[in-house]
Each structure stands twice: as structure tokens, then as C-alpha cells.
Design brief:
- By secondary structure, the protein is of the alpha+beta class.
- It has two domains: 42 residues; 105 residues, Sulfite Oxidase, Chain A, domain 2, CATH 3.90.420.
- Helix content is 32%, strand content 20%.
- The chain has a two-stranded antiparallel ribbon.
Length: 178
């Protein structure tokens, strides 16, 4: 029995064929040229937007967000709860930070070694993509200090972080202010 080509079957078949042709062309010269141009544009735009010379303004301890009066900030009981526990977990005794890649001095740093590095304290307004805002205080070692100690190669453009199942890869300029 002959199958009738309905409009739905035609659209589904055409969409599948279009997707297959795009995947087959991923390594083609025009596609790679386009992707290379977009990568270059994106890196320039990222360099403009994220600059270690334009950090978020810090707030004094006695002040809330400058542009948000207290009622406009997310109330404390309305924050999403990502970690719920009676106590914060302690850092494992053998925890280390491995620094490698394009550096002169690859290293494995312990928590004690990191705590002896120059400490930075910040108090900034945080606007989360999930729709909440808060003033947060943070202290720790800047990535730029770790990079300086490791002898970061000037050719480095990206930094990769791995921790448990978490993975992050960003342009170095984005992390330089952290």
C-alpha cells in the first residue's frame, strides 16, 4: 500500500534533511570561516564588557545597594535555597588547587598556602540572572594573584575551573578582576 505524503510528514522530513545538511557542513570552509569570525567578534566584545579595570563598585558596610532602596531588594526569606543543611561542610583535609597549563610554575596549592596569599575583601551588589538581588561580602584570593604566582603566559586567553562535577571556562579577562 502506498504511503501518502502529508504536509506534516513533508515538514518533518524537510527539517530532518536541513538539520543533517547543517551537521554535515560543520567542517566546511564557509562554516568554519563564519564561526571563526564570530569567535573573534565575541572575544573583542567580551574584552570591552569585562575589564579588570572596571570592577563593580564596592559598597561600605553600613550601606545597602545604592540604586535599590531596601524594599526593592529581594527579602532575605525569598532567596532561593541551593544548599540546605544544619551545618556547612568543612573543607577536606587533603583539598588542593591545581594550577597548570600555560604557566612557568605549575603548582598544587593547599588551603593553607592560599590563605597566606594576599587577601581581598569585597562588598558588592549582586544581580542574579534568576531575578534576585543582594549585597554580598566576599573575601579570598584573587585569581590574578594566583596567576601572578604561577607565572601566567601572556598568550593565555581562557581559564578553566573544575571542581567535583562543576566545570567553567571563561575568558581570562573576565576572571582577572576576581
Amino acid at each position: 500500500m502506498a504511503r501518502v505524503l502529508t504536509r506534516r510528514r513533508f515538514v518533518i522530513g524537510a527539517a530532518g534533511a536541513a538539520a543533517a545538511s547543517l551537521l554535515a557542513g560543520c567542517e566546511s570552509r564557509p562554516v568554519m570561516s563564519f564561526l571563526g569570525a564570530m569567535k573573534s567578534w565575541n572575544e573583542k566584545f567580551e574584552g570591552f564588557v569585562f575589564s579588570p579595570n572596571r570592577l563593580a563598585p564596592e559598597l561600605p558596610p553600613n550601606r545597602l545597594a545604592p540604586e535599590l532602596p531596601p524594599p526593592a531588594q529581594t527579602p532575605e526569606n525569598a532567596f532561593p535555597a541551593y544548599f540546605i543543611s544544619g551545618a556547612m561542610p568543612s573543607v577536606p583535609a587533603n583539598w588542593t588547587l591545581k594550577v597548570g597549563g600555560l604557566v612557568e610554575h605549575p603548582a598544587v596549592l593547599t588551603l593553607d598556602q592560599l590563605q597566606r596569599m594576599p587577601r581581598t575583601d569585597m562588598r558588592v551588589q549582586h544581580h542574579c540572572v534568576e531575578g534576585w538581588s543582594a549585597v554580598a561580602s566576599w573575601h579570598g584570593v584573587r585569581l590574578s594573584e594566583i596567576a601572578k604566582a604561577a607565572g601566567l603566559d601572556s598568550r593565555v586567553r581562557y581559564v578553566e575551573f573544575r571542581s567535583g562535577g562543576y566545570w567553567e571556562n571563561q575568558g581570562y579577562d573576565w576572571f582577572a578582576g576576581v
